[in-house]
Amino acid sequence: MALPELEQFFTQIQTAFNAQSLQRLVLSKYQGDDAELERITVRSIKIKDELLLSFLYEYRTNHITKNLTLANAIRFLEHSLGTDFKNAHMLSDEWEIQLSYSKKGKILVNKHRNKNAPATQAKQTETTEPDAIPKEKLLAHNKEKHRFVEQSRPYLRELGITEANGQIIPTMSRKWKQINKFIEVLSKAIENTGIAKRNEVHIADFGSGKAYLTFAVHDYLSAQLGVNTRVTGVELRQGLVDLCNQTASKLCLTGIQFEQGDVKHFAAKNINVMIALHACDTATDYAIHMGIRTGADIIMCSPCCHKQIRPQMKSPALLAPVLHHGIHLGQEAEMVTDGLRALLLEANGYDTQVFEFISLEHTSKNKMILAQKRKSEQDNREVLAQIAAIKTFYGIEQHCLETLLSESRNPAN
Ligand SMILES: C[S@@+](CC[C@H](N)C(=O)[O-])C[C@H]1O[C@@H](n2cnc3c(N)ncnc32)[C@H](O)[C@@H]1O
C-alpha cells in the first residue's frame, strides 16, 4: 500500500491523464543501477485511438521510448519512485506538482496551480486553494522554471558548451544564454500553436552553422516534450555539415540530419517550424518564403547583414543631417527591411512579432522575427496597402521576400 502522499500524487496523474490535461511527468534524480540512464520524461500519446503514456528513457547518448497503459504506468511508478527516482515533477493544465525524497526518505510535496492555467482558474486559487504557496516562494519557483535547458544535456558537452562535469565553459556562456533564450521563445510559440500534439514535428534550420540551436531545438522537442521530431539543418559549408552529422551520430540521434545546400535553391516540404538564425542578408527572405510556402506553423528568424534595401532607400531631405551618419542609415535600412518582412508575414496569414531576442550584451545580432500561423483567414488588404505606402515613401523598388512571394503566386512571370 503506497503512502498517502504517493496515493494523492498517483490520483493527480490519473485524473490529468483521464482529462487529457497531462502535459508531462519527469522522473529525475535517478539512483538505480543503469549508469547511462539520466531521467524519464512521460507524456500522453494516442496510438490507434488508445490513450497511453509514452515513457522516454533518456540515456547519456541515446533515447528509448516505451508506451504503457495507465495501470502499468502507475505500477511502474509505485515500484520505482523513492527507490530508483528521487524526484518526480508533474505538469498538467491545472496543476504543477513536485514530489521529492529527502535524504532521510521523507516525501516532500510542493503543489500549486499551473501558472499558465486559464485566468478563471488562477483567480479561483487565490481564494479557495488550501495549500496555495506564499507569493515569494511561487516567484522563486517560477524563476527556477525559467531555465529552459538543463546543463546536463549530452549535446551541450559534445558541442563544447559544458565540461564533462556539466559546468558551462566560461567562454561559452554567451552561447549558453542564447540557447536558453531561444528555447524559451520557441517553447511559448509551440504552446500557442499546439504543434507538440502532432504525431511528428518537422523542423528546418536554414544556415545551421555549428548547429548549437539545431541540436537544442531537437533535444527540447524530443527529449523534454517527448515529441517525435525530425530536424533538418541546411548549411552552405560542407565541412560544417560533415561535422554536425558526425556529432549527431556520436550522440545516436536519428531524428536530426544536416544537408549541404543553399537556402536559395533548397526545396522543402511539410515543415512545421522554420528557423533561420543569423542567415546572411536575403538568405533570411528565402527562408521566410520557404516557411510561408510550406505552411509552417512557426517561422523564427534573427536576420543579419541587411544589404538589399539600403542602396534603394530615399529618405526625406529633412532627415539628411541625421542620416548622413552611416550608422543611422544602416539602422534605418535594417528597421525598414525587417518591418516589411513582418508586414509581409502578416499579409500572408501570420501573427508576427519583432523583438529583442537577447540583449546586446550577449550578441550584436539581437533581433527576432517570430511569426505564428493564424488559425483563421484575415482580410489582408489594409496590410498590403501599408506595405505599398512604405515602399513608395522610401522609394523602394524591390524587397526580396515580396518578389519571391509574388513569383510563387505567378510562376509564369
Ligand atoms: C552566422 S552563422 C549562424 C549559424 C547558426 N544559425 C547560429 O545562429 O548559431 C550563418 C550560417 O549561415 C550559413 N549560410 C549563409 N548563407 C546561406 C545560404 N544561402 N544557404 C545556407 N546556409 C547559408 C553560413 O555558412 C553560416 O554557417
Descriptive account of the structure:
The strands form two sheets. The chain has a seven-stranded antiparallel β-sheet. Strands 10-9-8-11-12-14-13 form a seven-stranded mixed β-sheet, with helices on both faces. It is built from 13 helices and 14 strands. The chain folds into two domains: 4-145, no CATH class; 154-409, Vaccinia Virus protein VP39 (Rossmann fold, 3-Layer(aba) Sandwich), CATH 3.40.50.150. The radius of gyration is 24 Å and the shape is elongated. The protein has helices spanning 4-18, 70-80, 119-128, 135-145, 154-158, 173-193, 212-224, 238-250, 283-293, 320-323, 326-347, 381-394, 400-409; strands at residues 22-30, 37-47, 50-59, 63-68, 85-92, 95-101, 107-113, 201-206, 229-235, 256-260, 273-280, 298-304, 350-356, 367-373. The termini are far apart. Helix 1 (4-18) packs antiparallel against helix 2 (70-80), helix 9 runs parallel beside helix 13 (400-409) and helix 11 (326-347) packs antiparallel against helix 12 (381-394). It binds S-adenosylmethionine (SAM). Residues 206-209, 212-213, 234-237, 240, 262-264, 277-280, 283 line the site of S-adenosylmethionine.
